[in-house]
Design the sequence.
Protein backbone atom coordinates (compact mmCIF):
# COMPACT_ATOMS: atom_id res chain seq x y z
CA UNK A 1 0.00 0.00 0.00
CA UNK A 2 2.75 2.40 1.01
CA UNK A 3 4.74 1.14 -1.96
CA UNK A 4 1.89 1.97 -4.30
CA UNK A 5 1.52 5.40 -2.72
CA UNK A 6 5.24 6.08 -3.23
CA UNK A 7 5.02 4.98 -6.85
CA UNK A 8 2.16 7.38 -7.54
CA UNK A 9 3.94 10.21 -5.71
CA UNK A 10 7.05 9.62 -7.86
CA UNK A 11 4.90 9.59 -10.97
CA UNK A 12 3.41 12.92 -9.93
CA UNK A 13 6.89 14.43 -9.57
CA UNK A 14 7.79 12.93 -12.92
CA UNK A 15 4.87 14.67 -14.59
CA UNK A 16 6.00 17.93 -12.96
CA UNK A 17 9.55 17.49 -14.26
CA UNK A 18 8.21 16.66 -17.71
CA UNK A 19 6.03 19.76 -17.61
CA UNK A 20 9.08 21.89 -16.74
CA UNK A 21 11.01 20.26 -19.56
CA UNK A 22 8.32 20.92 -22.15
CA UNK A 23 7.32 24.44 -21.14
CA UNK A 24 10.64 26.08 -20.26
CA UNK A 25 12.07 28.64 -22.65
CA UNK A 26 15.72 27.84 -21.86
CA UNK A 27 17.27 24.83 -23.53
CA UNK A 28 19.52 24.08 -20.57
CA UNK A 29 16.57 24.16 -18.14
CA UNK A 30 14.86 21.60 -20.37
CA UNK A 31 17.94 19.40 -20.03
CA UNK A 32 17.74 19.71 -16.24
CA UNK A 33 14.04 18.79 -16.38
CA UNK A 34 15.01 15.71 -18.36
CA UNK A 35 17.58 14.88 -15.69
CA UNK A 36 14.81 15.02 -13.08
CA UNK A 37 12.69 12.65 -15.19
CA UNK A 38 15.60 10.20 -15.55
CA UNK A 39 16.37 10.23 -11.81
CA UNK A 40 12.72 9.74 -10.84
CA UNK A 41 12.52 6.93 -13.37
CA UNK A 42 15.46 5.25 -11.60
CA UNK A 43 13.64 5.61 -8.27
CA UNK A 44 10.58 4.04 -9.87
CA UNK A 45 12.67 1.06 -11.00
CA UNK A 46 13.95 0.62 -7.45
CA UNK A 47 10.39 0.57 -6.10
CA UNK A 48 9.44 -2.01 -8.72
CA UNK A 49 12.32 -4.28 -7.64
CA UNK A 50 14.51 -3.80 -10.72
CA UNK A 51 17.69 -2.63 -9.02
CA UNK A 52 20.06 -3.37 -11.92
CA UNK A 53 17.91 -1.43 -14.36
CA UNK A 54 17.83 1.47 -11.88
CA UNK A 55 21.63 1.60 -11.64
CA UNK A 56 21.98 1.27 -15.42
CA UNK A 57 19.47 4.09 -15.81
CA UNK A 58 21.52 6.42 -13.62
CA UNK A 59 24.90 5.41 -15.09
CA UNK A 60 23.94 5.44 -18.77
CA UNK A 61 21.12 7.98 -19.03
CA UNK A 62 21.98 10.54 -16.35
CA UNK A 63 25.74 10.09 -16.53
CA UNK A 64 26.10 9.62 -20.26
CA UNK A 65 23.30 10.53 -22.61
CA UNK A 66 22.25 13.65 -20.71
CA UNK A 67 25.86 14.85 -20.63
CA UNK A 68 26.01 14.33 -24.39
CA UNK A 69 22.87 16.45 -24.78
CA UNK A 70 24.25 19.23 -22.57
CA UNK A 71 27.47 19.08 -24.62
CA UNK A 72 25.34 19.47 -27.72
CA UNK A 73 23.77 22.60 -26.24
CA UNK A 74 27.19 23.98 -25.34
CA UNK A 75 28.64 23.33 -28.80
CA UNK A 76 26.10 25.61 -30.40
CA UNK A 77 27.08 29.10 -29.34
CA UNK A 78 24.22 31.54 -29.04
CA UNK A 79 23.64 34.90 -27.41
CA UNK A 80 22.35 35.00 -23.87
CA UNK A 81 19.01 36.44 -24.95
CA UNK A 82 18.26 33.44 -27.16
CA UNK A 83 15.29 31.32 -26.13
CA UNK A 84 13.50 28.30 -27.60
CA UNK A 85 10.25 30.20 -28.05
CA UNK A 86 11.93 33.07 -29.89
CA UNK A 87 13.72 30.71 -32.22
CA UNK A 88 10.46 28.89 -32.87
CA UNK A 89 8.47 32.03 -33.69
CA UNK A 90 11.27 33.37 -35.85
CA UNK A 91 11.39 30.11 -37.75
CA UNK A 92 7.65 29.91 -38.24
CA UNK A 93 7.36 33.55 -39.27
CA UNK A 94 10.00 33.11 -41.92
CA UNK A 95 8.11 30.11 -43.33
CA UNK A 96 4.42 29.94 -44.05
CA UNK A 97 2.24 31.31 -41.23
CA UNK A 98 0.35 28.02 -40.92
CA UNK A 99 3.42 25.78 -40.49
CA UNK A 100 3.21 26.01 -36.68
CA UNK A 101 -0.21 24.37 -36.53
CA UNK A 102 0.96 21.76 -39.02
CA UNK A 103 3.87 20.91 -36.73
CA UNK A 104 1.54 20.69 -33.74
CA UNK A 105 -0.86 18.41 -35.61
CA UNK A 106 1.97 16.12 -36.74
CA UNK A 107 3.39 15.98 -33.21
CA UNK A 108 -0.03 15.20 -31.72
CA UNK A 109 -0.65 12.38 -34.21
CA UNK A 110 2.79 10.90 -33.56
CA UNK A 111 2.31 11.15 -29.78
CA UNK A 112 -1.12 9.45 -29.90
CA UNK A 113 0.28 6.68 -32.10
CA UNK A 114 3.19 6.01 -29.73
CA UNK A 115 0.89 6.14 -26.69
CA UNK A 116 -1.59 3.67 -28.22
CA UNK A 117 1.31 1.40 -29.16
CA UNK A 118 2.60 1.43 -25.57
CA UNK A 119 -0.87 0.80 -24.10
CA UNK A 120 -1.37 -2.11 -26.48
CA UNK A 121 2.04 -3.50 -25.52
CA UNK A 122 1.23 -3.33 -21.79
CA UNK A 123 -2.19 -4.95 -22.26
CA UNK A 124 -1.04 -7.77 -24.51
CA UNK A 125 2.16 -8.79 -22.70
CA UNK A 126 1.65 -12.18 -21.01
CA UNK A 127 3.33 -11.22 -17.74
CA UNK A 128 2.84 -14.66 -16.18
CA UNK A 129 5.09 -16.23 -18.81
CA UNK A 130 8.23 -14.54 -17.48
CA UNK A 131 10.28 -16.50 -14.99
CA UNK A 132 11.75 -13.35 -13.47
CA UNK A 133 8.38 -12.11 -12.32
CA UNK A 134 7.39 -15.53 -10.98
CA UNK A 135 10.47 -15.66 -8.79
CA UNK A 136 10.13 -12.02 -7.76
CA UNK A 137 10.21 -12.89 -4.05
CA UNK A 138 13.60 -14.57 -4.45
CA UNK A 139 15.14 -11.80 -6.54
CA UNK A 140 13.92 -9.15 -4.12
CA UNK A 141 15.91 -10.83 -1.38
CA UNK A 142 19.23 -10.88 -3.24
CA UNK A 143 18.87 -8.27 -5.95
CA UNK A 144 18.66 -8.99 -9.65
CA UNK A 145 22.31 -8.52 -10.66
CA UNK A 146 23.32 -12.11 -9.90
CA UNK A 147 20.44 -13.56 -11.88
CA UNK A 148 21.15 -11.26 -14.82
CA UNK A 149 24.82 -12.25 -14.76
CA UNK A 150 23.95 -15.94 -14.67
CA UNK A 151 21.49 -15.55 -17.55
CA UNK A 152 24.03 -13.56 -19.60
CA UNK A 153 26.72 -16.20 -19.12
CA UNK A 154 24.53 -19.22 -19.88
CA UNK A 155 21.24 -18.84 -21.72
CA UNK A 156 21.91 -15.45 -23.30
CA UNK A 157 25.63 -15.82 -24.01
CA UNK A 158 25.32 -15.16 -27.74
CA UNK A 159 23.24 -11.98 -27.22
CA UNK A 160 25.89 -10.87 -24.70
CA UNK A 161 28.66 -11.11 -27.30
CA UNK A 162 26.39 -9.67 -30.00
CA UNK A 163 25.95 -6.61 -27.75
CA UNK A 164 29.72 -6.08 -27.96
CA UNK A 165 29.55 -6.30 -31.76
CA UNK A 166 26.63 -3.84 -31.91
CA UNK A 167 28.55 -1.45 -29.64
CA UNK A 168 31.57 -1.81 -31.94
CA UNK A 169 29.48 -0.91 -34.99
CA UNK A 170 27.98 2.07 -33.16
CA UNK A 171 31.42 3.21 -32.01
CA UNK A 172 32.86 3.10 -35.52
CA UNK A 173 29.82 4.72 -37.10
CA UNK A 174 29.35 7.43 -34.50
CA UNK A 175 32.98 8.52 -34.48
CA UNK A 176 33.01 8.57 -38.27
CA UNK A 177 29.87 10.70 -38.46
CA UNK A 178 30.93 12.99 -35.61
CA UNK A 179 34.23 13.67 -37.33
CA UNK A 180 33.19 16.65 -39.43
CA UNK A 181 36.06 16.06 -41.87
CA UNK A 182 34.16 13.11 -43.35
CA UNK A 183 31.05 15.17 -44.00
CA UNK A 184 32.20 18.66 -44.89
CA UNK A 185 35.24 17.73 -46.94
CA UNK A 186 35.14 15.70 -50.11
CA UNK A 187 37.09 12.45 -49.84
CA UNK A 188 40.36 12.40 -51.68
CA UNK A 189 40.08 9.96 -54.54
CA UNK B 1 6.82 -0.47 7.62
CA UNK B 2 8.07 -1.46 4.17
CA UNK B 3 7.61 -5.10 3.33
CA UNK B 4 9.91 -4.81 0.29
CA UNK B 5 13.51 -5.57 1.36
CA UNK B 6 14.86 -4.13 -1.90
CA UNK B 7 13.40 -0.77 -1.03
CA UNK B 8 14.80 -0.82 2.48
CA UNK B 9 18.23 -1.68 1.06
CA UNK B 10 17.96 1.33 -1.23
CA UNK B 11 16.67 3.29 1.78
CA UNK B 12 20.33 3.74 2.76
CA UNK B 13 20.98 5.29 -0.65
CA UNK B 14 18.02 7.58 -0.11
CA UNK B 15 19.40 8.54 3.32
CA UNK B 16 22.73 9.41 1.72
CA UNK B 17 21.01 11.54 -0.94
CA UNK B 18 18.96 13.38 1.68
CA UNK B 19 22.05 13.80 3.88
CA UNK B 20 24.15 15.25 1.04
CA UNK B 21 21.46 17.74 0.01
CA UNK B 22 20.74 18.74 3.62
CA UNK B 23 24.44 19.20 4.39
CA UNK B 24 24.89 21.67 1.53
CA UNK B 25 21.60 23.52 2.05
CA UNK B 26 21.85 23.88 5.84
CA UNK B 27 25.42 25.16 5.53
CA UNK B 28 24.40 27.82 3.02
CA UNK B 29 21.28 28.71 5.03
CA UNK B 30 23.16 29.22 8.30
CA UNK B 31 25.91 31.15 6.50
CA UNK B 32 23.31 33.54 5.07
CA UNK B 33 22.62 34.81 8.61
CA UNK B 34 26.18 35.57 9.66
CA UNK B 35 27.91 36.63 6.45
CA UNK B 36 28.04 40.28 5.38
CA UNK B 37 26.26 41.09 2.12
CA UNK B 38 28.32 43.79 0.38
CA UNK B 39 28.42 42.90 -3.31
CA UNK B 40 30.72 44.76 -5.69
CA UNK B 41 31.41 44.25 -9.40
CA UNK B 42 34.58 42.34 -8.59
CA UNK B 43 32.69 39.84 -6.45
CA UNK B 44 29.80 39.50 -8.88
CA UNK B 45 32.06 38.77 -11.83
CA UNK B 46 31.87 35.33 -13.42
CA UNK B 47 34.39 32.83 -12.13
CA UNK B 48 37.27 32.20 -14.49
CA UNK B 49 39.98 30.32 -12.60
CA UNK B 50 42.33 33.18 -11.85
CA UNK B 51 41.76 35.07 -15.09
CA UNK B 52 39.76 38.16 -15.96
CA UNK B 53 36.54 36.80 -17.50
CA UNK B 54 36.24 37.76 -21.15
CA UNK B 55 33.07 37.70 -23.23
CA UNK B 56 29.91 35.67 -22.65
CA UNK B 57 29.75 32.50 -20.58
CA UNK B 58 27.98 30.87 -23.51
CA UNK B 59 31.19 30.34 -25.41
CA UNK B 60 31.36 27.54 -27.93
CA UNK B 61 32.98 24.32 -26.83
CA UNK B 62 35.39 22.40 -28.96
CA UNK B 63 33.43 19.92 -31.10
CA UNK B 64 36.13 17.37 -30.34
CA UNK B 65 34.54 16.85 -26.90
CA UNK B 66 31.57 15.29 -28.69
CA UNK B 67 33.54 12.38 -30.12
CA UNK B 68 35.16 11.78 -26.73
CA UNK B 69 31.71 11.80 -25.07
CA UNK B 70 30.35 9.36 -27.67
CA UNK B 71 33.20 6.93 -27.06
CA UNK B 72 32.70 7.40 -23.32
CA UNK B 73 29.01 6.45 -23.51
CA UNK B 74 29.73 3.27 -25.46
CA UNK B 75 32.34 2.16 -22.96
CA UNK B 76 29.94 3.06 -20.16
CA UNK B 77 27.33 0.69 -21.61
CA UNK B 78 30.04 -1.97 -21.78
CA UNK B 79 30.91 -1.27 -18.13
CA UNK B 80 27.28 -1.63 -17.02
CA UNK B 81 27.07 -5.00 -18.75
CA UNK B 82 30.30 -6.15 -17.14
CA UNK B 83 28.83 -5.68 -13.65
CA UNK B 84 26.56 -8.77 -13.73
CA UNK B 85 29.42 -10.68 -15.36
CA UNK B 86 31.72 -9.72 -12.50
CA UNK B 87 29.13 -10.85 -9.94
CA UNK B 88 28.91 -14.40 -11.31
CA UNK B 89 32.59 -14.68 -12.27
CA UNK B 90 34.42 -17.04 -9.87
CA UNK B 91 31.23 -17.68 -7.93
CA UNK B 92 32.14 -20.53 -5.51
CA UNK B 93 28.81 -22.30 -5.95
CA UNK B 94 29.06 -22.36 -9.74
CA UNK B 95 32.76 -23.33 -9.54
CA UNK B 96 31.87 -26.36 -7.42
CA UNK B 97 29.06 -27.30 -9.79
CA UNK B 98 31.25 -27.18 -12.90
CA UNK B 99 34.48 -28.46 -11.38
CA UNK B 100 36.47 -25.26 -11.97
CA UNK B 101 35.58 -24.88 -15.65
CA UNK B 102 33.22 -21.99 -14.91
CA UNK B 103 35.92 -19.48 -14.09
CA UNK B 104 37.96 -20.15 -17.24
CA UNK B 105 34.80 -20.00 -19.34
CA UNK B 106 33.64 -16.71 -17.80
CA UNK B 107 37.14 -15.25 -18.13
CA UNK B 108 37.33 -16.07 -21.84
CA UNK B 109 33.84 -14.72 -22.48
CA UNK B 110 34.66 -11.51 -20.63
CA UNK B 111 37.88 -11.06 -22.58
CA UNK B 112 36.10 -11.61 -25.89
CA UNK B 113 33.50 -9.02 -24.88
CA UNK B 114 36.13 -6.42 -23.99
CA UNK B 115 38.38 -7.26 -26.97
CA UNK B 116 35.60 -6.65 -29.52
CA UNK B 117 35.14 -3.11 -28.22
CA UNK B 118 38.89 -2.60 -27.98
CA UNK B 119 38.94 -3.03 -31.78
CA UNK B 120 36.60 -0.04 -31.98
CA UNK B 121 38.89 2.02 -29.77
CA UNK B 122 41.86 1.01 -31.92
CA UNK B 123 39.90 2.10 -35.02
CA UNK B 124 39.14 5.52 -33.52
CA UNK B 125 42.73 5.90 -32.37
CA UNK B 126 44.23 4.80 -35.72
CA UNK B 127 42.04 7.22 -37.67
CA UNK B 128 42.99 10.10 -35.42
CA UNK B 129 39.50 10.71 -34.01
CA UNK B 130 41.05 10.90 -30.55
CA UNK B 131 43.60 13.52 -31.60
CA UNK B 132 42.98 16.99 -30.32
CA UNK B 133 42.49 19.70 -32.94
CA UNK B 134 45.39 22.09 -32.59
CA UNK B 135 45.21 25.58 -34.03
CA UNK B 136 47.28 25.66 -37.21
CA UNK B 137 49.82 28.51 -36.94
CA UNK B 138 49.32 30.84 -39.90
CA UNK B 139 52.60 32.10 -41.39
CA UNK B 140 52.50 35.86 -41.80
CA UNK B 141 52.54 37.15 -45.36
CA UNK B 142 54.41 40.29 -44.23
CA UNK B 143 57.66 40.69 -46.13
CA UNK B 144 60.21 42.93 -44.49
CA UNK B 145 62.24 45.29 -46.73
CA UNK B 146 65.23 44.62 -44.46
CA UNK B 147 67.16 41.60 -45.77
CA UNK B 148 67.56 38.75 -43.30
CA UNK B 149 71.37 38.84 -43.32
CA UNK B 150 71.23 42.29 -41.73
CA UNK B 151 69.13 40.86 -38.86
CA UNK B 152 71.63 38.05 -38.47
CA UNK B 153 74.54 40.49 -38.40
CA UNK B 154 72.74 42.56 -35.79
CA UNK B 155 72.10 39.52 -33.63
CA UNK B 156 75.72 38.53 -33.97
CA UNK B 157 76.76 42.02 -32.96
CA UNK B 158 74.43 41.91 -29.94
CA UNK B 159 75.79 38.58 -28.77
CA UNK B 160 79.30 40.00 -28.67
CA UNK B 161 78.39 42.21 -25.76
CA UNK B 162 79.48 40.72 -22.46
CA UNK B 163 77.90 41.37 -19.11
CA UNK B 164 80.23 43.68 -17.18
CA UNK B 165 80.42 43.65 -13.45
CA UNK B 166 77.93 45.90 -11.76
CA UNK B 167 79.29 49.38 -11.45
CA UNK B 168 79.81 50.74 -7.92
CA UNK B 169 76.96 52.99 -6.74
CA UNK B 170 79.14 56.09 -6.57
CA UNK B 171 79.54 56.26 -10.35
CA UNK B 172 75.79 56.01 -10.87
CA UNK B 173 75.05 59.02 -8.69
CA UNK B 174 77.36 61.36 -10.55
Sequence:
Amino acid sequence: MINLLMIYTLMGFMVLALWLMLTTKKLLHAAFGLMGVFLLQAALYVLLGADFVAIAQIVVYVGGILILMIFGIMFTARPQTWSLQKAHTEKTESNQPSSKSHQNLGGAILGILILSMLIRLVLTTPLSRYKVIESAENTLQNGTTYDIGLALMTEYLLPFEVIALVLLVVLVGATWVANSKNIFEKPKS
Amino acid sequence: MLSNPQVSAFGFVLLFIIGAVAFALIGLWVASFIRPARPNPEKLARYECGEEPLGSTWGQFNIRFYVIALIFILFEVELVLLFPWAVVYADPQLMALSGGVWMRFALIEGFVFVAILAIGLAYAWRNGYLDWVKPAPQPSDFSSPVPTHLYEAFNQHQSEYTVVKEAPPSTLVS
About this structure: The longest helix of chain B spans residues 5-34.
